[in-house]
Design brief:
Elements: E1 5-8, E2 14-16, E3 19-26, H1 31-34, E4 37-48, E5 56-62, E6 65-73, E7 75-80, E8 85-89, E9 93-97, E10 102-108, H2 110-115, E11 117-127, E12 138-142, E13 149-151, E14 157-162, E15 164-165, E16 168-169, E17 178-185, E18 190-192, E19 200-212, E20 215-217, E21 222-225, E22 233-247, E23 255-257, E24 260-262, H3 265-276
Antiparallel strand pairs: 1-21, 2-3, 3-4, 4-11, 5-10, 6-9, 6-11, 7-8, 7-10, 9-12, 13-14, 14-17, 15-16, 17-22, 18-22, 19-20, 19-21, 19-22, 23-24
Length: 285
């Protein structure tokens, strides 16, 4: 019998700027298999000590995709060269369309900096189709209250961050056809995944214990569902929180260099040149 999913295991923890521990779960060297997604990093869970100065990642550029930061615990502050900024707490999402290019920074929010506390976040990179690679940058500041919740009837619930679930649409505006759900399941509850079999469909377990097709999934691991798994069901064996991410593949070339993801090597060279010339804007620390 074919395996119900392909497992993406987190790498060893590493620092990103002053953020630690960050574990990469998948990246764009697997672009064809995870299309239209590019990268998923899991930060924490970690205890942050109080500090006089905010810690995080200073100004850095992006072009050609979107960064989606999902805050599970704690808070994160964003600023960018397009003049956008905001602080998102637990349950909130910062959705930044880099498009033609933007320079941004990500730091602990003011309350977390002052008081310390728990921090846990997921950052997902979503590819942009070729026609949208050079759109104007956009920033969506989406607090927890912005997302509709669908009760499952078994004690579980689904917060619709993007796309649709059971006829309910999430508020995130996307250039790429995707679904992104934040799911809570009590022990014994099941979650059907009514998603097109032609999409790439993945489940990230944040906490708890679940099985898919009878196979267990561990926290901070991603199950990429097999194309043959037409009617997948997630079953919680303990109270669990998970993220479901799925999308229609773009089927376009992916050429990446650090913070730039384009379709050709020439476009990467242009992105590097544009950044060096200040054409993506500038951001003071």
């Amino acid at each position: 019998m074919p395996a119900p999913f392909h497992l993406h295991a987190p790498a060893a923890p590493h620092a990103v700027g002053e953020l630690f521990p960050v574990r990469n779960v998948f990246a764009y060297d697997q672009a064809a298999a995870i299309d239209p997604f590019l990268l998923l990093d899991y930060l924490g869970p970690a205890t942050v000590a109080p500090s006089e100065q905010p810690r995080g990642v200073g100004p850095h550029p992006h072009r050609g995709f979107e960064t989606v930061t999902i805050v599970l615990r704690g808070e994160v502050a964003h600023r960018d060269s397009a003049g956008n900024g905001g602080v998102i707490g637990a349950g909130g999402v910062q959705w930044m369309t880099a498009g033609a290019g933007v320079v941004h920074s990500e730091f602990h929010g003011p309350n977390l900096t002052r008081d310390g506390g728990e921090l846990e976040m997921v950052q997902l990179w979503v590819n942009l189709p070729a026609r949208a690679k050079l759109v104007a940058p956009r920033y969506q500041d989406l607090p927890a209250a912005a997302f509709p919740t669908v009760a499952l009837g078994n004690g579980g619930s689904v917060r619709v961050l993007a796309g649709m679930f059971d006829g309910v649409r999430g508020p995130s505006q996307t250039h790429t056809e995707i679904a992104l759900w934040d799911v809570a399941l009590p022990a014994g509850a099941e979650l059907p995944l009514p998603l097109p079999a032609t999409w790439n469909r993945m489940v990230l377990l944040c906490a708890g214990e679940v099985t898919i097709g009878g196979e267990p999934l561990r926290p901070q691991h991603v199950a990429r569902l097999a194309a043959t798994n037409r009617s997948p069901v997630v079953r919680a064996t303990r109270p669990s929180r998970l993220l479901v991410l799925a999308g229609a593949p773009l089927g376009e070339p992916v050429v990446a260099h650090g913070p730039f993801v384009m379709n050709t090597a020439a476009e990467i060279d242009q992105a590097i040149a544009d950044f060096r010339r200040g054409r993506m804007g500038r951001l003071d620390v």
